[in-house]
Amino acid sequence: MLFLAISLPITVDIVSAATNTSTTTKVTVSQLTTAASSVNSFYKTNKRLPNYVTISGKQLTMPQYLYLITTETSQLNSGSTAAITVKNVNVAPKPTESLKKGNIQKTEYVNVAKNLKKFADTNGRMPNFLSTSRGNIKFETMVDTYSRILIFYKTNKRLPNYVAVAPWTGKSYTPSEGGTGTNPTTPTTPTTDVVTVTPTQLNEAVASVKTYVESRNKMPTTVTVAGKTIQISQFLQLLAQRIIDLNSGKNVNLKTKTINMATGPSENIKSGNIQKTEYISLASKIAVLSSGSRVPNYWSTTLGSMRYESTTYLFLKAITFYNTNKRLPNYIYTPRWTGTTTTGMTSSIVRPVYIISDKISNNATDNARINAVIAELKKLGITAYNYGVGANNIAILSNTNVPINALIVQFFGGACAATLNEMGTSYYKSLKDTKKVFTVFTDGAKKITGLAWLERAHDDNFSPASFTGLANPDKYLTNNGYKYYEGYNSSKLQELVQILYKEATS
To answer: How far apart are CA 127 and CA 131, in angstroms?
Structure first.
């Protein structure tokens, strides 16, 4: 099954212009499968269900969402792909579970879905549990289970023959945000109250927002921390306060202030390193902003004028580094902001794909190879670009026009030991930063899977004379976090495209 990464309350871009979601909002199959990926990923990251899913600015609770995905499962089994009407459904009052780990066959999970819909239609709420051959299954487990069923459908265009179930080990669903389904059309607005935030609560939000920004190249306008929704401008000040505290050795609770957004943010920086003294000085300026003030349109730095999105990302990386290394970093690489600011959390990760290639055959053949992959990716909704034949696989990493969440696909006609070795160096990884790199070896390249020793390439004119080759190149790549594909030719186009699709959406 396909799993994606996401964090924080989820915004799913599902078409709806209705104001009464209980009677008029319709949800399509593709929209629900996208939502299923998001909910599943949120659970994997946070070990709990999200409080709600926002559909075109309208919040739907998990009971409403479960009603939709179980109804969809039942319809798909009968061959129907008709849009489903959103229904107001309340939570289960006392959910219980006595489930044994194992598989539930298709016939059974479809019947369970039908039973849930029947119960909800009759009682206006979720059941405390439903009976299965593996025992009683409760609401939270059903959300996870049927989300995975729809994820499988999205990838394979059919329902799975069976689905694995296991007892729920996450936190219980408590709809502290978004209500219980009685008023799903009212979006959660940032609180005006002062919110006390513990270091642990802030760290959870830091991890979520950083993952969100790096995978989507977007900055949210609101963040949920300590169970409350606050503006990104307020979150930025919390980050600044935390950095000041960490620098002085404090580990204390923080309090939010009413900090308004920048009215016309602008930026003119060159990518580079911000030293510790400078980012601490910047944090000091933000930490002392008073309630009622606003975030400036930019701050002056040694790299140029920096807008709040870049500053937020800078602070996220500083705190993440501290949480791993128990100290603040001496410097932080800061790219120019190329993303957007959204009105809420979007549903899924979709990385833009940039494809480069060695000079393998000739320009026409090599470009045709790239363009064939691009054409198929576009059919799947993935934006892809031909970055060039003979393109420098180092230079593309530092190109500020390439988004921080890009998937870079490099076609190689041969396995160069020095090139692969370079990918594991700190220099290469610092340039790559949050981008993903996927390597494709064409069918003329030497196979590296299971290879004990990859000798230095005969045309290697850039590595030091002392470099003679690379041991276990396949393990070297995977141990450094890279994936690759071997033996590519035109007959394997669809297979490669499906792999790249998964890389671009994870």
So the answer is: 11
